[in-house]
Amino acid sequence: MATTADFLGKNCPHCGAIDSLETDDVLGEVACTECAIVVAMGLEESVSTRYDKDATYDDVDRHRKREDMSVSTPHALSLSSSASKTPGGDTTGKIILHPAMLNCIRGLQKKSALPEQVIGRAVELARRFVGGRRARGQRIEKQQDVAAACFMIAAEQMNHPVPLAELRHLDAALGDVEYRRAEIVKETHMEEEERRLKAMYVDNLLTIYLRKLSLQLSLYMPRCKRLLGVLHHVDSLREVGVVDKIIMSLLLALTSRSFQWEKEKTVVNTTGNSVIGSTNSPEAICANFAAKANLDIGKVNKVMKTANENLQAILAAFAATDSTHGNENTKKEEKEEDNDNSSNMTLVTKRMKVENP
Question: Which residue intervals define the domain Transcription factor IIB C-terminal module in the entry (predicted)?
Fold first, then answer.
C-alpha cells in the first residue's frame, strides 16, 4: 500500500503543477498546493509514524535514519532544480498536461488521419502555453479547446490545415477554439509565425481538398484561385469567411457550367473518371466532398446555397475579371510573338553577314 513518502517531489496528476504535492502523515492524505485537489486519501502510515507496540528506541532511530536518507535525495534534487531555474529557463519538458488535453489531441489526429508527428508538435505547443500560464499562477480554462487550438496550429505548420468547421465536425464538444488560439499566439509570442501560416493557408487548404478529391492540381488550382479572387469582389459575400469561400470556389469549379475557361477540355482525375461532363449531380458532388473533407453535409449545402443565391453577382464579377484576364493574355501573346519575330530577324541578319562577308 502506498504511503505519503511515495508522493514527495511528484507533479500533480490533475493540473500538472511541478512538485506541488503536500503530504499529511496524520490524515494520510496528499493534496496539490496549486489546484487544491486531494490527490490521494487513506494512505498507509510511514514506518517511522506507524504504531508498533513492540518497537524499541533503536528501531525508531533506525527507521527514521532510513527514511531521512530516502527522502533527502529527491528533496535535494528538487531544491537544486528549483534553484537552478532562471526566469527564461526552458522547463517545457517537465510540464505534464492534463489527460483531457492529451486525449483531445490524440483523438483529433486519429479522426483527421494526419501524420502522428502532429501530436508531438501540438503537445510541445500546449506545454509552452500551459507552462507560461502556471508560472504566473493563472488557471488553464477550457483545456480541450486549448488542445484543439494547439492541434490546429501544429497541423498548419505541417502544411495540412484543419479548418475550424472540420474540427467541430470531428469533435462536437469543442467551443471557442479561435479565441484560445489567439491566447496561445500571444502567450507563446508566435505573431510572426501566425502571419506566415496565414499567408500559406489558402494554397495549402486548396491543395489538401484537391488531393482528397483526386483532382489534377495544375488544372484546378488556377481555376479555384481565380474564382476565389472573384468571390472577394462580390459585395454580398463580404461577410463570408475565407474557408467558406474556398469551399465555394472549389464546388463552383466542379458543379457550375456557367464559367468559361480559356481552354475548356475534358478533365480526368487520378482515378480515371471524367469530371467535366460527369453524370454526377451537384448534390452528389457536394456529399462526396463533405465526406472526404470531414465536413458536415449541412454546412457544405449551406455554403452552396449561398453561392447559388449570389450566382448572378459572381458571374458578373467573373465576366469583368475575364475581360481583364483576356486582355492580359492577348498582350502576353503579342509580346511573345514580337520576341519571336525579333529573334528571327536577328538570325536572318547573321546569316546574311555570313553569306556576304
Answer: 97-194, 204-314
